[in-house]
Amino acid sequence: MSQEQEEMPTLEGLLPAFPATILELLNVEAPSYLPPAIQPVIDLFRSKGPVERIVINMIDNFGLFEITYYKPQFLISTADALVLLSTSNPYTLGTLHQMFFGGFEFENNGFHLLKYLESVGKSSVFVGRQKDTARYGANYGIAKANDMATWIEAAKIINRHDLSFLHYLDFEEIYQQKRRTGAANPEELIQKLIKRTDKWILSSWKMLKRRSLMLVIGNHGRYKIDLNYQGKVAQWRAASVPLALFMYKP
User: Fold this and answer.
1) Residue 233 has what pLDDT?
2) What value does the mean pLDDT take over residues 68-78?
3) Sheet holding 124-128: strands in order across?
4) Given this model, what pLDDT does residue 67 score?
5) Which of 37, 46, 158, 198 has the most CB atoms at less than 10 Å from its CB?
6) Does residue 95 have a pLDDT over 50?
7) How many CA atoms lie less than 13 Å away from 248 in the CB half-sphere?
């Protein structure tokens, strides 16, 4: 473990508490029916300064195991906090559902994170694949065909909205393509995509205005993929949990 990781606060929270946490970080009162915000996160970042905008980068097939094993340089050197997210469904759609609705019920009490922000005068946008933006983006979705297009769009929008949500999910599509050609090496593929996305997020960070909070959210992917890890490494990955990395730009 690096010195940066040793110094980084590691917190714990419930994934359904994410909407309330985002709202409170943006100084918006959360509805009482939502699971309460992750208070240690609120306390930590209120002490750092005002949060004028939040940029969320959600990466499929990325969790505590991947960040510790592959050590993406920018993320581990810049993050102010790592939050382990407890949930009964760590996969992509389960994660999206909890992040937008505060649970597994579709628009519980009529709540949708992006719609709620709009109702209080905040702007938001969700960039990702069409089937996901259509389901979760309400009227605030921008559909892109692949991760590179999502990253390019990030440069245009991250400083224009109070909340920008960017979804990176190339791993499974590229993995299936390689399987069909007989060239699949999922562990090497994961490593390459994590390093690539780490560089992309660094470039977004450099463009991001001051008094911004950037998050990287990891989940277990759209479906379970059996990888070729052996021994303790395999056990370690099996125990991996979704995570959130928080980075404040003062």
Assistant:
1) 46
2) 92
3) 10-14, 81-86, 243-249, 212-218, 53-59, 163-168, 124-128, 141-143
4) 85
5) 158
6) yes
7) 19
Report which of 197, 239, 223, 226 is spatially closest to residue 94, judged by C-alpha positions: 223
Compute the C-alpha angle 185/188/194, nearest 5°: 135
Residue with tokens 């690096």: 2
Alpha-carbon distance of 55 to 162, in angstroms, equals 8
What pTM does this model have? 0.90
The C-alpha atoms of residue 25 and residue 211 are separated, in whole angstroms, by: 12
Q: Kindly give the pairing relationship between strand 163-168 and strand 10-14.
A: unpaired
Over the chain, what HEC string results?
Answer: CCHHHHHCCEEEEEHHHHHHHHHHHCCCCCCCCCCCCCHHHHHHHHCCCCCCEEEEEEECCCCHHHHHHHCCHHHHHHCCEEEEEECCCCCHHHHHHHHHHCCCCCCHHHCCHHHHHHHCCCCEEEEECHHHHHHHCCCCEEECCCHHHHHHHHHHHCCCCCEEEEEECHHHHHHHHHHHHCCCCHHHHHHHHHHHHHHHHHHHHHHCCCCEEEEEEECCCCCCCCCCCCHHHHHHHHCCCCEEEEEEEC
Predicted confidence (pLDDT) at residue 180 exceeds the cutoff of 70 = no
Token duo for residue 231 = 């021994």
For 134-144, the pLDDT digits (tens) are: 999 989 999 99
Residue with tokens 């109702």: 119
Both tokens of 117, joined, read 């922000």
